[in-house]
Amino acid sequence: MKGYISEEHKRRFTIITVMLATLFFIAQFILPYIIVFAYMPSKMFNSCWTRYIRIENSALWQGKVWYVEESPRESATKAKNNLMVLQVGSKEGPVAKIEIPIEDPLLLADKDKLWIISSSAISYYNGEELKSIPNTKQLDNIYSPFLCQGRPAVIEITSEKLNLFVFNGSDWIKERILISNIHDSLYPGRKIKIISQDKEIYSFLKFRGTLYYRQGLPSDKEKDLKSWKPVCSVGINCHPTFINKKPAVFRSSGKKGYVEELEGMRLSNGIWEEFFSHRMYFTEYPSIHSIDTNKFILLTQTVPASFKAIEVKNGKILKQINYGKNSSSPTAIMKKMYLLYILIIFMPLLFALILSVLMQKYRIEEYKEKGISVRFASLGKRGFAQAIDCTIVWAPWIISFTAMTLNPLSFEKIFVMSEQESILRLAWISIGCLLWAFLWLFIFSFTEGKYGKTPGKWLLGIKVLGIDLKPCGFWRALIRNLLEIADAFFNFMVGIMLIALSDNWQRIGDTLAKTIVVEDREFFDE
Questions:
Q1: SS3 299
Q2: Are residues 442 and 520 in the same domain?
Q3: Whose CB has fewer CB within 10 Å in the chain, the N or C terminal residue?
């Protein structure tokens, strides 16, 4: 029986190999999906373990930035909200002050306290402790907190109306109806935003792609835009605030490639003038706070567990600092995911090692040609040699993937460009990696064709020869290496199975190039 000790050995080995291949196929391509779909969704989409920074609801109080962070909690029913504080310009990072027992809190800075408001509760932090105000009215969805005559105020949106509620010290009082019917109104939904500073109040309205403003609060009796003045055209989002005690608006001027241009416009002598422009990867939920004369801080979300603080003075960026983690996932969960990924990568090597032991028992390990015998290279050695060579060939891809996985924020520099710039940069990276791979493909084909070796084969003590036991030459080695693409299907399962079951331990590339892989030792006569 060619290639086998006996017919019975061939039958047993074939059955065992097919069974092992099935198990390894399930372990590599089915089991991971079962784990992900059965285990990860309950973790990934559960606020009890994911970490989120609510930077869009931040506030500037006592010269510091305050925001809410959702942190992991043992219970799956309720997220843990921490009140975080960041010293502007500090590299030390934010510090957790207290835990907030309020769901979806909004922050509002007052002179001597920081209000923490939700639709179901209201509290304030005085710098030492959190004080809750009991038995307050339950509101519907609320947004846009501001100070109205020194008192906290919010806009409530119901299924029909837009109401303005003001806190009187003990409970919420409906100050007025802003819109009586949001479906038939001139400005439905959350199209109105209100800001205040000292005793000044400005209202902003987005209507048909244009942003309008007016001093004071809008009235439900208004049926047209006569009391509103245009600011500028806007996209999906705009963010009104005060800069240097003047009303300002930050808007996205439109998407350019993977990024958007965030522009700042300020009201000066009745005219809106652009005073700031910055290209950013994320512009949907920034938070802007005035910290000094002509100086402000721009906070923008990067990934869910981190944000970037950009200090700006006179329209020029002074510094940019990243805070937080690169992933919203706890370290333990991420380690498990990486471990699972690494196990999948090394699964073919384990399969090859197991088959190597079985082939010693069931297969004939010698190849004979014209009275000369050589020993086939074991499947385990071939697998490790292949792993070394693949590491060399795909090193740039491996480095890029590792960098992106460990620090996705570094890739923001690539995306914060124009569309042409970003595509060109990514194209050059891809072309560089491909040129590197092709360079080593030709180098390996040359060294295999002449010497029978690559770096991996040299380290493992094996070599490639033609079936006539002579060097196979460059072109046959090139064919052999190009066809490695077919052998690599299903994480090299195809190549491993063909080597294990074929008479001369050949994969597809070996069969078509008429080559074999043998131990690198002197030939011996029969």
A1: strand
A2: yes
A3: C
